[in-house]
Amino acid sequence: QITLKESGPTLVKPTQTLTLTCFFSGFSLSTSKVGVAWIRQPPGKAPEWLALIYWNDDKRYRPSLKSRLTITMDTFKNKVVLTMTNMDPVDTATYFCAHRASGGNSPYDYWGQGMLVTVSS
Amino acid sequence: DIQMTQSPSSLSASVGDRVTITCRASQDISKHLNWYQQKPGQAPRLLIYAASSLHSGVPSRFSGSGYGTDFILTISSLQPEDFAIYYCQESYSRLVTFGQGTKLDIK
What we know:
The complex is a heterodimer of chains A (about 120) and B (about 110).
Chain A: E1 3-7, E2 11-12, E3 18-25, E4 35-41, E5 48-54, E6 59-61, E7 69-74, E8 79-84, E9 93-100, E10 108-111, E11 115-119
Chain B: E1 4-7, E2 10-13, E3 19-25, E4 33-38, E5 45-49, E6 53-54, E7 62-67, E8 70-75, E9 85-90, E10 102-106
Parallel strand pairs in B: 2-10
Antiparallel strand pairs in B: 1-3, 3-8, 4-5, 4-9, 5-6, 7-8, 9-10
């Protein structure tokens, strides 16, 4: 059974750096073609893909946010970490991590419950 | 960037109704279209992948069709638990863009 769960602060101040951790079980990031992504959803809006890391440490970022994002993985501890610098109130959103089974064009088939991050002074 | 446009934006229907939601891509995305259901306070749940394949555990009243730029999600007989927001998502590009969503509520 695949499960994912996000962890991190629920409130950050403008200009601060956000660090979110995705703890997962039921799969391994050592398995070929497996990936874990971060996706966010501002209140009342559609989800927006942010970043993705694959089993081989191949990393992808949303071009408009690339300078602010870093995604890393710890295969042995079954976690993926996302950092986002210079947070702004427009970054207020629910942040999800999600599993991708087989790379390429495959869907995000399992998601964490998400966590609301509010950016406010 | 690929743009995904869903119609309608909202829809009212009754239990037992047959419902269709349309998603149009701004360019050819082959069969790389997925459908998700989201209920308040929950994560999106994968329903259909690769345009027409049913994800594990999803009831057979959900089905998908289409290819290229035009896709359809069909719910054959609405159940009370189906009232939610539905999103299409392309997985053709690296950006995996979502549609704006279709809110399905009770008439």
